[in-house]
């Protein structure tokens, strides 16, 4: 509910602002230790990314309530935003977007980690689990860039707004596609913030969508094996429907004004 989200936001904001807050039956304040604020900034940013990786990966609609809190905190405490991007880029290099190259002397295990895979006891996580986590983080990022905390002062621009989403999309299309990963993440990203990008960039946005269909999609298709067709077909269907209807629907789970009255 909207009221619960406000409580969570206020508690985090109070903690970062040096006020005392109740946590786990104790009263804590960042004024209790000279490095406490830096520590809390770091851990909070990490926690937001973890929520993308875990909660949003399992429950896609969770992207919006988490993102609106993260966006509002970022606006008041920019350091959290910088650290959020650092954690995000490390866990999901595709959010830069960046595809690390295999350098001489790098072990395969280390390289898989650089690509965002979890490696435990020399075993690499399964592809579908990996893609699910990457999707969760990209969806959270796509939600953050379009959402603002509704009770903020809104004096300045969004601390990391839709122009970053436009830039991400353009950079993705300038890179050689990766089988499975590219189709999955483009679909996730456009499903979550395509509607907002469409409203902001209008004609330019539709030119970009046509470019994806005519030029970029065939390039993804060319490197996709028969076992990886699922994500590709989902993306193709989404593209076709949007171009046909000249509309990208509002994402499922988007926060409507009625939510804040709950």
UniProtKB/TrEMBL annotation:
At the top level of its lineage, which domain of life is listed? Eukaryota
Any coiled-coil regions, as ranges: none
As for subcellular location, the record says: Cytoplasm; Nucleus, Nuclear pore complex
Under the heading InterPro entries, the entry gives: GLE1, GLE1-like_sf
Q: Which Gene3D superfamilies does UniProt cross-reference here?
A: GLE1-like
Q: Which GO terms describe its biological process?
A: poly(A)+ mRNA export from nucleus; protein transport
Q: Which UniProt keywords apply?
A: Coiled coil, Cytoplasm, mRNA transport, Nuclear pore complex, Nucleus, Protein transport, Translocation, Transport
Q: Phosphoprotein as a keyword?
A: no
- Which GO CC terms are listed, alphabetically? cytoplasm; nuclear pore cytoplasmic filaments
Q: Which GO terms describe its molecular function?
A: inositol hexakisphosphate binding; phospholipid binding; translation initiation factor binding
Instruction: Report the protein's function.
Output: Required for the export of mRNAs containing poly(A) tails from the nucleus into the cytoplasm. May be involved in the terminal step of the mRNA transport through the nuclear pore complex (NPC).
Give the family, as the similarity comment puts it.
Answer: Belongs to the GLE1 family.
- Stored PANTHER family: GLE-1-RELATED, MRNA EXPORT FACTOR GLE1
Query: What is the name attached to this protein's record?
Result: mRNA export factor GLE1
């Amino acid at each position: 509910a909207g009221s619960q989200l406000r409580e969570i936001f206020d508690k985090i904001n109070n903690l970062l602002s040096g006020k005392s807050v109740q946590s786990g039956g104790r009263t804590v304040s960042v004024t209790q230790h000279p490095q406490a604020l830096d520590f809390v900034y770091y851990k909070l940013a990490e926690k937001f990314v973890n929520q993308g990786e875990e909660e949003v990966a399992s429950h896609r609609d969770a992207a919006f309530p988490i993102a609106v809190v993260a966006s509002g905190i970022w606006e008041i405490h920019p350091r959290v935003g910088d650290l959020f991007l650092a954690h995000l880029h490390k866990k999901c290099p595709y959010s830069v977007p960046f595809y690390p190259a295999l350098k001489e002397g790098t072990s395969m295990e280390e390289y898989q980690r650089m690509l965002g895979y979890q490696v435990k006891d020399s075993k690499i996580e399964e592809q579908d689990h990996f893609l699910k986590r990457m999707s969760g983080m990209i969806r959270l990022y796509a939600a953050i860039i379009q959402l603002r905390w509704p009770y903020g002062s809104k004096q300045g621009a969004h601390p990391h707004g839709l122009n970053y989403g436009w830039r991400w999309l353009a950079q993705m299309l300038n890179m050689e596609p990766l089988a499975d990963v590219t189709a999955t993440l483009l679909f996730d990203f456009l499903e979550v913030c395509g509607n907002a990008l469409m409203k902001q960039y209008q004609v330019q946005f539709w030119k970009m969508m046509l470019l994806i269909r005519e030029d970029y999609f065939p390039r993804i298709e060319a490197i996709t094996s028969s076992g990886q067709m699922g994500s590709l077909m989902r993306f193709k269907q989404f593209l076709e429907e949007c171009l046909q209807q000249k509309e990208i629907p509002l994402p499922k789970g988007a926060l409507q004004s009625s939510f804040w009255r709950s």
